[in-house]
């Protein structure tokens, strides 16, 4: 069912006897495809796709204007370089024993200060579900093999702060230039700034830090006044608050440098300024967490 093939067709492709059980570690080959673009499945990496289509990661990344370490999303179309040869999807079988308790991988994304109150955020979060394992042995369970020989648990680990910052370098520009009157980080007991506050004259144009789509434009978050959220590629979101006016609407596509609104003092601040945030989530199931813009934006 997973390969959309009948049992006899799958057995014929892999030269198997349908009356005999699969051996532990056996590799099962599915049908080959002649399509020139591949639709990303959950857990796919550029390395795995390159291996399947017998091309180099470098060539595959260049064909799609991506970094070799880029995070892929389910359903994303990956163009295949000329000369590719589809080996068909590979799956391997394994068994899970009950004697080994499941231990979820540690989240290395960020440290949480338990003494600080949970900050308000303009971005709605969806908590990711905890990973579970079967409570009984499972035989011949198909899984996607990792791109290399490192343990599977490592491939599931969240990216480090350094990796996240590196992935954003060169992709974003300042929404405006001005004096930073409040920097990123903890500001006192129970208080922190998840972005930067930049002083600028009333009415100064505020532009999008990168290409993206307007995820929100409105004033329903009182402490932020007029607020615009822009969703970018590869899990990034930027926020622009305290605007005096906005020039965009929901689902509108914007380019880097395109005006979103103008500097104001809405949302309870005492002088004209822009509150600017950058947030990142490795996958759509993960909670978007704040990243210091000063470490990502050009100096």
Automatic annotation (TrEMBL):
Pfam families: LysM, Peptidase_M23. SUPFAM superfamilies: Duplicated hybrid motif. Gene3D superfamilies: Glucose Permease (Domain IIA), LysM domain. Residues 83-120 are annotated as: Disordered. CDD domains: LysM, M23_peptidase. SMART domains: LysM (SM00257). GO terms for molecular function: metalloendopeptidase activity. Residues 36-80 form the LysM domain. Residues 91-101 have a biased composition (Polar residues). This is Peptidase M24. It comes from Caulobacter vibrioides (Caulobacter crescentus).
